[in-house]
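Attaching the record inline, Q. Sequence:
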Amino acid sequence: MSRVSRETTETSVRVSLEPGDGKANIETGNRFLDHMMTAFAKYSGLDTDISARGDLKHHLIEDVALTLGKCFKEIVPNGAARYGTSTVPMDDALVQASVDIGGRSFYQGDLPSRLYDHWMRSFAGEAGVTVHIIVLRGSDRHHIVEAAFKALGLALRDALVDTGAIFSTKGRVSVTVE
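Structure, as predicted:
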């Protein structure tokens, strides 16, 4: 289990995360963010507890992403399968997410919501994860964003499988700071 708290003058965020059944206890005060975090938990198979409050919607969404990303980074097993891809249809929307949880932060996507596109970028940066989100079809913003979170969750679920092997031609990476 990983627990991370983030306190600023703008927000207060507490997150705990652990592999499980995808149970969610989410309270951010933003109903759509709660809905997306619940979908993230369910589809990733990660038991997720988020308690957050913030002054502005932007600050709240960004800081939840940063805190969840930090928490996620702490639970990645050394022998993780590392890669995952999932495509999710949701009514008119069809969205694909591909991830590499091998420690390189990168986000590429174009969600029809600046706030949730920023959520993806913030999560990827703090988690040390490469995330590509491709919107293949759709016009309903809610369906596209929700399909993106579900696809991300499923891709992360696959990438987190502990194979017991190191999936890198470099082998285990060791960095020492003195």
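The domain at 2-159 is CATH 3.30.230.40 (Ribosomal Protein S5; domain 2). The chain has four helices and eight strands.

More tomorrow.
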